[in-house]
Amino acid sequence: FEFLYENGEFYFIEMNTRVQVEHPVSEMITGVDIVQEQIRVAAGEKLRYKQKDIVFRGHAIECRINAEDPFTFVPSPGNIEFYHPPGGPGIRVDSHIYQGYRVPPHYDSMVAKVISYGDTREQAIRRMRIALSEMSIQGIKTNIPLHQELMQDARFIEGGTSIHYLEHKLADKSEVKA
């Protein structure tokens, strides 16, 4: 089940019977491999955890890397001419691409997820900044520059942003250009 919490109210959004695209964030802060647990349960094994066993530790951030223009969001299919994923402590990359891979025009434009973990929010942000600076995907446009900009934004760094944060940030940027 997915809920939105805004202005002191919970709103039901959806129920999915699949693993959520953002599951790596939950995995990073709980230490639970959600996919492994789903496979074990599907194979008839007993779930190894009770709710009381799940403890949140640290902070995690996920940046979804899409094959699209970073500011117009126009899709950017094409050939990956060079690919270098980031690494290091607290960094996870989930991706299916490789040098020579062709990003098709008719499917989801997500080509990678970069997840950073830190004991504090500040550490997670610092690690994500470094990871995004190390990541290189050439041959197509990606939204990496947008993520880099967001990781420098004072409102994001302070925290407490709403679900309208990106919408407002992009609108503010448009007004500055006009």
UniProtKB/TrEMBL annotation:
<protein>
    <recommendedName>
        <fullName>biotin carboxylase</fullName>
        <ecNumber>6.3.4.14</ecNumber>
    </recommendedName>
</protein>
<keyword id="KW-0547">Nucleotide-binding</keyword>
<dbReference type="GO" id="GO:0046872">
    <property type="term" value="F:metal ion binding"/>
</dbReference>
<dbReference type="Pfam" id="PF02785">
    <property type="entry name" value="Biotin_carb_C"/>
</dbReference>
<dbReference type="Pfam" id="PF02786">
    <property type="entry name" value="CPSase_L_D2"/>
</dbReference>
<dbReference type="InterPro" id="IPR005479">
    <property type="entry name" value="CPAse_ATP-bd"/>
</dbReference>
<feature type="domain" description="Biotin carboxylation">
    <location>
        <begin position="1"/>
        <end position="171"/>
    </location>
</feature>
<dbReference type="InterPro" id="IPR011764">
    <property type="entry name" value="Biotin_carboxylation_dom"/>
</dbReference>
<dbReference type="InterPro" id="IPR011054">
    <property type="entry name" value="Rudment_hybrid_motif"/>
</dbReference>
<feature type="domain" description="ATP-grasp">
    <location>
        <begin position="3"/>
        <end position="43"/>
    </location>
</feature>
<dbReference type="GO" id="GO:0004075">
    <property type="term" value="F:biotin carboxylase activity"/>
</dbReference>
<dbReference type="InterPro" id="IPR005482">
    <property type="entry name" value="Biotin_COase_C"/>
</dbReference>
<keyword id="KW-0436">Ligase</keyword>
<dbReference type="InterPro" id="IPR011761">
    <property type="entry name" value="ATP-grasp"/>
</dbReference>
<dbReference type="GO" id="GO:0005524">
    <property type="term" value="F:ATP binding"/>
</dbReference>
<dbReference type="InterPro" id="IPR051602">
    <property type="entry name" value="ACC_Biotin_Carboxylase"/>
</dbReference>
<keyword id="KW-0067">ATP-binding</keyword>
